[in-house]
Give the backbone structure.
Amino acid sequence: MPKAERYFVRGRHYHLTHRCHNRSFLFRFAKDRDVYREMLRQRLVKYQTPLLGYCITSNHVHLLVTAMSDTRISSLMESLEGDFAQYYNQRKNRSGAFWGTRFHAVAVEGGEYLWSCLNYIDLNMVRAGVVKHPSEWRWCSYNEIVGDRQRYRLIDTERIANLFGQIRDATPFRENYRHSISEKLQKCDLSRVSMWSESLAIGSAGYVQDIEERIYNRRKMDRAPTDSDAAATWVLKEELPGCA
C-alpha cells in the first residue's frame, strides 16, 4: 500500500479506516471508545480538520474528513493513534502494538458518493449485528448528523449541510439523511462493501482519473513505479455500491 499521507489534496474528502492489531476487539469496552472519541475531538480542534462522519467499532474505526492541507490529516492520525495506543497499554499494563498496519485512506468525491459513504459509515454496527439502528450506537455520527445529539459533537454539521446545498437551514438535510438510513434498513442488503475501505478513490471517471494521475506523478517523483505497484495498489472505483 502506498503511504496514504502523501496523497492528501486540500479540499478533498477522505474515508480513513484503521484496524486494531490482528483485528482484535481492543475497543470492546465503552470507556475505551469514550477516551478515543475525546482524543479525536481534541485533535480535530488542534489540527483544524473537519470531521464529516465517524464510527468507532469494537475492532476498528472509520473517519470521514476533509483535508485542509496536505499534511494535517497525517499529523492528526499520528498524534491520535500514537497517544491512544500509549493510553491503552498503560491502562491494561500491556506492551505491543494496538493498531495493525498503517491506516488506509480512500479519496471520496462529493455529491452522491459522499452521501453513500456517510451512510455506509453510520450503518457499520447494524451490518455487524450489534444494533438494529445506528441511533442505538452512540459512537457513530448518526445522532449528530440528524440533530439528536447537540452536546460534545465531533461532526461539522454546518459544513456537511453546506456540501449538500443546505446553506441557511440544515433541517431538510437532516430529514433527508434520516430517511435515507431508514430506507436502506428497509430495502437493502447491508453486506460489507470492500471498496469503501480498500480502494484509493471512489467517484466519477474524471475524478478517479485525476487521483490516479496524481498518485502516478507523485510516485515517479519518489521513485520509478513498477508494474507490481500498479497491480497491487491502484484499486480505483467509479461505480456506487448498491446498498451502502
Summary: The longest helix spans residues 72-92. Strands lie at 13-19, 51-56, 60-66, 104-108, 201-202, 236-237.
